[in-house]
Design brief:
Blueprint (H helix, E strand, L loop, with lengths): L5 H8 L8 H18 L23 H4 L5 E7 L6 E5 L9 H10 L19 E5 L5 H13 L5 E5 L1
Parallel strand pairs: 1-3, 3-4
Antiparallel strand pairs: 1-2
């Protein structure tokens, strides 16, 4: 009978094998799984929407919704009967005597402008058109424009008739 070689006897007698211990790897995988489950936020992200709603007092009626989108027209004409100019508000709002009175009227009737919400008729973005006659001095037109813008209105335009 042939004798086994020395190399064969070494293989059979040595029980050391190279391998990976899977038990510790499974523990690490479970620990990572638990960590990511605890650290992850599964809720959908909340979104913030900006809303600019008009603030209304208790006694205020629906003036905002009663107002048509018609612009407020301010007419500047040269008065034929008396020297100077004539200032008129179309729509039955009354006629201010001069530009400072127009500025007070516009500031008092802007919603949120005077602190009294019941007095407000116009929002600050309500369109306002200044209609100037051809003979009106440019300084009057610019003064009227400055009075309206100074009262807090944003949408102001000029037209020459």
């Amino acid at each position: 009978m042939p004798r086994p070689s020395r190399s064969a006897s070494r293989r059979s007698s040595g029980t050391s094998s190279i391998g990976v211990n899977l038990a510790s790897m499974i523990d690490v995988v479970f620990l990572l799984l638990i960590y990511f489950m605890v650290a992850t936020d599964f809720r959908p992200g909340e979104q913030v929407f900006r809303l600019d709603l008009p603030q209304r007092g208790e006694g205020q009626h629906d003036v905002l919704f009663d107002q048509a989108e018609e612009p407020l027209r301010i007419r500047l004409d040269v008065s034929a009967s008396e020297p100077g100019y004539q200032l008129r508000l179309e729509g039955g709002w009354g006629d201010p005597v001069d530009i400072p009175e127009l500025a007070r009227f516009m500031a008092a009737h802007r919603i949120g402008g005077s602190g009294q919400r019941d007095q407000g008729w116009f929002t600050s973005d309500h369109p306002i058109v200044i209609l100037a006659g051809p003979a009106v001095a440019w300084s009057r037109v610019v003064g009227t424009f400055n009075a309206v813008v100074g009262a807090g209105y944003d949408v102001v335009s000029l037209e020459v008739k």
